[in-house]
Amino acid sequence: MKPRKNIHISCVECQVGHLCLTKNLAPASITLLDDKIQYAQIFQPNERLYLQGTKITYVYAIYSGLCKDYSTDENGNICVNEFYLSGDILGLEYLDKEVFQLDAVALKETIVCAIPISLLKNAEEIPKLKERFLEILCQQIDNHRYYANQTNVKCRIAAFLLNFIRRVKQRQDHDSNKDFDLTYEESIAIPISYIDISNKIGISNETFSRILKEFIADGLFKIQHNTICNIDIKRLQNILIA
User: What is the pTM of this model?
Assistant: First the structure.
């Protein structure tokens, strides 16, 4: 780990603070938080942040990058739990277990802030911090349920894409409360493999690829490399209510 000040990271000036811990905190509280979160760590693509069963010393707030956490069954099959973007926190839901319940890996170069669990256990020392931790946990549950509750395969894929677009836009526009009820979006980078996405939403990779081709043929969007372009947001939303 490296001191955060050495790589010019601070809670006071963080561009994703509105999604992380500093939301709704008073300036004095943010300064105190900054003093308590001293270290950051840089992970390269495919490098693990932590392993299942590892004792929790820190949880990790993503400053930049992209990660996933996942489980592996006795046959070596991987089940993706979630994808994490800048401003998200990994490991928060496992504190009562004292060890990580899943593996986590970086999907691209990722910088994380290491939040000591002592801060979480003594969150009342900073006004409104405990409430913020609870908000983040609830948001993570809602994010998972957003598309997990869809039974129709096309609805599940549309829901995943809309949710990912919403999360990316929150980070671009620096407003976690904004309702992105758009009709058209120019382009959004989705640097996640089809295999990981299909695994996450519980369908085969072949089915995911086939329905993506149908969406493209119907003019809902185009895909260029890892970027989804010319997205007709309204038509994607209509799939969920059809």
Answer: 0.90
